[in-house]
Amino acid sequence: MKASDLFVKALEAEGVEYIFAVPGEENLDFLNSLKNSSIKLILNRHEQAAGFMAATYGRLTGKAGVCLATLGPGATNLVTAAAYAQLGAMPLLMITGQKPIKSSKQGKFQIVDVVDMMRPLTKYTHTMVSSDNIPSRVREVFRLIEEERPGAGHIELPEDIAIEETKARIIPKSRTRRAIAEKKAIDQAVQMIENAIHPLLLIGAGANRKMTSKTLNQFIEKTGIPFFSTQMGKGLIDERHPLFLGNAALSANDLLHRAIESSDLIINVGHDVVEKPPFFMDHESFKVIHINFSSAVVDPVYFPQQEVVGDIANSVWQITEKLRVQDHWDFSRFLRIKEHVDAFMKVCIDDENFPICPPRLVADVRKVMPSDGIIALDNGVYKIWFARNYLAHQPNTVLLDNALASMGAGLPSAMAARLVYPNRKVMAICGDGGFMMNSQELETAVRLNMNLVVLILRDDAYGMIKWKQTGMGFESFGLDYGNPNFVKYAESYGAHGHRITKAGDLVPIMEKCLNEPGVHVVDCPVDYSQNDTILTKEVKRLAKFI
What we know:
The protein is built from 23 helices and 18 strands. The longest helix is centred in the first third of the chain and has 15 residues, at 47-61. α3 (47-61) packs parallel to α5 (79-88), α12 packs antiparallel against α14 (332-345) and α15 (358-368) crosses α16. The chain is globular. Helices cover 39% and strands 16% of the residues. The chain is an alpha/beta fold. β5, α7 (134-146) and β6 (152-158) form a beta-alpha-beta unit. The strands form 3 sheets. It has a 6-stranded parallel sheet.
């Protein structure tokens, strides 16, 4: 058969449902082969957004998301998405076109070395030079990007290879089971936990990927050990749980860090060093058990004394089975600190001032979102507020990026979530800066008849950097800009536009948008003037007295 037909059949054999794409002329044979495929083509308006959508699909399903772009500028526009998936451990396959490699009539027009460009950003990158190798290369890239630790992969399909005839056959997807931890490692971890006085459980990004919720719930219910999470570990355990201490949203000096410093053993499940470290091993007050799919990547602030390497869910189950609850365990200080954390989260949630303050904003969003509703956060200072104050009820209901932390991902991520979960409420939460980086995807969402809410937090500036600027003692400079009329902007795409004019409007307008069909864009002015006072000065002040 034709090589491009074989490529599509290889993708079908891997279970691919969608291809997110901005095609070019170098992709036309491949595009034609998709016409009769079970794979649905999602036409995007920018390659970066296509990559973000594919990566988020991978994050939510565990199966590689696939995106398509042409050569040259199409491929270079995928670079940010590649880094987003690679750092965030999201399985992503990027397919790019290329001029004929056996003969060329256009010299170097639009030609860049895409494979070398992608090499440091992917687990695998390859140019197809023979149609006969398509089945093996596709099977290999999926194997690599879907296995732990997941990440990005890239295949370049030149025009002359795409039109070749081949008799090669599909290589079926093989079944694999992850290795489990060795018995001695389990026994040593159990002994360390039993000997500890103030053990504390940390849930990281790796645990959230594989949905180890059941076994971790069993561990917590049996032991009564309090727990906290990283930003990308949010929601694995219902954060309304009485033993949930909070989310490590700040690097240091937060109230939660008083609990970490009071621990003598941290049971670290699914830690990923790509996230800002939630604690620093620069003193000898505690030891760390590393429970993960792979051994710890050692750096100056992370060098665990005990490692349990294997399937996370199985490791936690084995430890729970063997662990005996100890009378000498003492969690009293942790629970006192939790009272302070919970009280601090309630500050300003009833504030009627306008523009709206972040704690009130977060509380209002939590009021209107159901337990299985998904919020997809772009990147800005509001991400810290949501990580700290928004209690996630279920796994992967708070989609945020604490790895590359790229602006522009919020709207595409929400759109991908809507495709994966068509019957759940989904809200993109974006700063005005991040929203405008991929706002053109509103057209894609409208064209796909999505029911989606886009909440734009407008401060007419790069708010995160203004907060940092203030914290460093600099005068405000160089970070303010103008914005379009977001209501008219939304309407120009065929979406519904709404503007918040007082704090009390936010809940009823969001409820209306969540319960009516179509794409709804909500322009919500937000006041970040207290960021430095609350997140920097007040947190440090209170932390000294706990």
